[in-house]
Amino acid sequence: MDLQKFLEKLPQQYQDWGSALMSPISEELTLLSQKTASYPDRNLFPLLNLAVACLQPEEVYCQVGCFRRGSLVAAFWDNSDRYGYGVEAFFKYDPSGEKLTILSEDLEDFQLSEQIFLSDQETENFFDDLEELNSEEKLGVYYYDAAEDYRSLLISLLLAKKFWSDSALIIINKCQHPALQQAIKDFIKTHPQAQIILDDQVANHGLLGLKNICLLAWNAPPEITALKSPKKLVLNVGCGPYNPEALPQLFRDGNWQEIRLDINTAVNPDILGTITDLSAVPDNSVDGVFSSHNLEHIYHYEVPIALEEFKRILKPEGFLMIVVPDMQTAAEFVARGDMENEPLYISP
Fold first, then answer.
1. Distance between CA atoms of residues 109 and 131, nearest Å
2. Is 144 exposed, middle or buried (0-12, 13-18, 19+ CB in 10 A)?
3. Per mean pLDDT, which range of 80-89, 102-111, 164-173 is the poorest?
4. What gap in Å lies between CA 60 and CA 193, rounded to an integer?
5. pLDDT tens-digit profile of 303-315?
6. Would you say 86 and 93 are in contact if contact means Cβ atoms under 8 Å apart?
7. For 55, which DSSP code?
8. In sequence order, which residues have a C-beta less than 8 Å from that of residue 8 and are 6 or more positions away?
């Protein structure tokens, strides 16, 4: 796997690289995500496609977890000279065979059935069979999109590592799950050959368009470094629905990248949490924190807890901007007896 080429070309596959508005440049891959009912994964498609394009001779692609069928098609789109495996226990999770049939039809429709071998078996059995083949092919790209539990991911990595090429790329999806995060950490601790080049932790990259994706380099060359956002990071706590003008002007000069945190899943935040528990955000990881009309909604004793959390996640030179109700202005209206005209403020 040509990791250096992959890292150099990855930002070129997107518009608004590293921002919440990030989107694929390729219209074909965007249309493909719609055709295969995988539109939520559209930013993943260019990454997989580029990874397969960067495979070296005698390297193949391996994907564990194929229920989201569009990813296999996207990986091999316009990569006609590459080959790979798709591994999924369809017999266990799809007893009717409907999903396997649809995936097979997709591969036929996109003329990929000769390039991708579908393995309808458990991951452990697949690697047992692969070892018996005694093939000289190595796995240059390994993509995990399967069960979201600690054991499944860790066992998958431990079984696959003997088949990885000398320089391989490991892609892990759904990393918002704490169990998968822990499995990745434990694997890295025991395998110094594995290096994180992108993960879903704010401190390392802030690439919101690829959130919940972890990239590991296996036996990376010394010059390989982690992908990072060139912008400073501001955490908008209690962000509410996305609004490009929600932040004060000083955060909208092009040098800042917003990370949205809210307790409400309906507003689709980047991080789901509360201002009294920012445990999903690492220490000393953001340059700014913006809190607009949050503190007045928590109990008095919780305010110091929230402020401690803000301080913890801020870098040493970072700063905090807080907006709370202007009680002096409200009191002036009360003192004048001007309480029966238009409301002072209407909450949306």
1. 31
2. buried
3. 102-111
4. 20
5. 999 999 999 999 9
6. no
7. P
8. none
